Amino acid sequence: MYKIKHVFSAILFLMAAVVVAQDDTTITKEPGHTNQSKFRQMHQEFATPNTYRSASGTPGPDYYQQQADYKMNIELDDKNAKLYGEETITYHNNSPDVLEYLWVQLDQNVRAKDSKSPLRNPSRIAVAYQPATFTKEYMSEPFDGGFNIEHVKDTDGKALPYTINRTMMRIDLPTPLASGEKFAFDIKWWYNIPDHTVDRARSGYEYFEKDGNRSYVIAQFFPRMAVYNDVEGWQNHQFWGSGEFALPFGNYEVNITVPADHILDATGELQNRKEVFSKTMMERYERAKKSYDKPVLIVTQEEAEQAEKGFSEKKKTWKFKAENVRDYGFATSRKFIWDMQAVKIGNRDVMAVSLYPKEGNPLWEEQSTKAVASTLKTYSKHTFDYPYHKAISVHAKNQGMEYPMICWNYGRPNEDGTYSDRVKFGMISVIIHEVGHNFFPMIVNSDERQWGWMDEGLDTFMQYLAEQQFGKENPEVIAPNESYPSRRGAPAKIVPYMSGDQSTLAPIMSNPENVYQLGPNAYGKPATALNILRETVMGPELFDHAFKTYSQRWMFKHPSPEDFFRTMEDASAVDLDWFWRSWFYTTDYVDIGVKGVKKYYVSDKPTPEMEEYIAANNMSPSDLPPLVYLSEESEGAEGKTPSETSQTMNAFMMDNLTPEQRAAVKEPKYFYEITFDKPGGIPMPLIVEYTYADGSKENVTFPAEIWRKSDKEVSRVMATQKELVGVVVDPKAETADIDTSNNSWPKKEEESDFNKFKNSIQGDN
User: Fold this and answer.
1) For 67-451, CATH number?
2) pLDDT above 70 (res 9)
3) Which numeric CATH code is attached to 34-61+452-587?
């Protein structure tokens, strides 16, 4: 008995060492190394948890955030396209620190005459120029759009010393602001409003030459407090143009004075509706509050066209209040058509709103508010019930920009009212995306200046889900047997970017100013990663619970990337360090293939490896207990037939298994060893489709952890009663595999340039 146990132990050892035993001369000593496994924990990349942010991804017991409250009086000079403002900011120091000064953002200074932003990029002579481009580049004075600060004073009227460093202004406090105290001060300013159709400025006006009117979408229009928190201290990175905004929450009281014939909407709840609405508008508004199936026109196209003809010299002030918002925006024009529709979110009614000139119709009247309503429902389902009382979509040429409760969106029909599917779906998609930004980052308030993907990527992922849902809800827009043509989110969409020139790629965890292709990097790749994480790695049930947990933990707070990563693992019990490292911290790509398939037959005769072992240990075959061997069929040989294999297996079962054991097993006729290789750096679940001679198929998904001990290739043995005739990796294109030419056995006859590409950039990031 002892000898038999000894032999079994030796056989197990042989199985692990057989490759080395074949050629002892290949053993070499190599220097030691640190942990290079892609499955190692991310302790080095992550900050140490503390009392502000816990290891589970939740706000810690000492988590704090500052508050900035604003009272503003704003006046629009429509004739000269200027904006004038006065504000009182009350800043609450909820941090444990004493603050000697405050930092205020002056984002309009990115368009000041002396702005450094236009100088940050290199330039070269173009092959040819359009006349307008050439004139702008080389023959025009730069637009002077920076803030003109008239004064900074305390509430007693005493001037406060301040220093402007480009897009940031430091206000030196007369006495340090202690923890728990607040400080109020006044700023007065004005600036020239830019034409936002030039250089796609985030806010400004569009001029309509035919009727002489402007349509305004106004944001970043006031000096805004910077964020101070436990992660960055003061987030006072300069605004260069790409990295967007980091802002504290606060309460707003805003009075906006515009020409009396303008229609206006803004962040916040309108306080003097009866003063600025006509009686007819009020009646329509009351109907809209009860209309859940379609929008109600508050201002019709006919009324807007009539208003275009007059240029009132009178003024009207619209008064708003907003609680717990991080920013403010408004839109105004005498050209606006206005519609509204009530949407049931949880146990509350929310108003879906659209503002658009006649140039947007008929497309906007047909689809805008419908898209707003659908977005609010889908996002609320996956995160939290939308907490504000309205969401506004404003038509603006070539625009896509977001603020609390309001956003600007592109999509304009031809002059005759016709439009293509591209225009229609482009408009619906941008509305879904920008309305979705109410959730990320307007409520889940990430630092856009540093981590663009935390709002754009998460929002683009949610946009994909919302687009697909919109398609299901609107058969008149999407045929029942078709899916919404989402531009981003599906794995295949990111392949061209991830297979691109490595010298022009950056990890997702990069500052937005420092990447070559911001769209794929901050929008497309993280959206695809999360889609794969949901559908392929975690499964929708685990993912959705974790994603909702993150959203609800950090609503109205300031999360960091690590808070997101940790929460997703904490709420799901899925170890994802390998996923975050590969997709977010490197420029690795996915490439998994079938290296080869070997066929085996059952034998009672020792394999050559076993014969070598017997001889090396001065044993004879009679010393061995009954054993089953799988012998490889040599290439070109007929090998064993299934009936012979079956006979050998049957004899073993009869001689070595009890009747009960025999009844519990199936008798396989075919044995295969399939080797999969991974030229790409990202480990992913190994999704395999097996095809058998009878035409049937079988799908098996091996977890990503199959690569944990061998990053280059792995093998799997399968025993089956059916003959294997085909193997395909990732048959439904679920993993963003950049080279599918190696995904099949037998190998498909197709040419691919990817092999040269892979050899040129291969390496472990």
Assistant:
1) 2.60.40.1730
2) no
3) 1.10.390
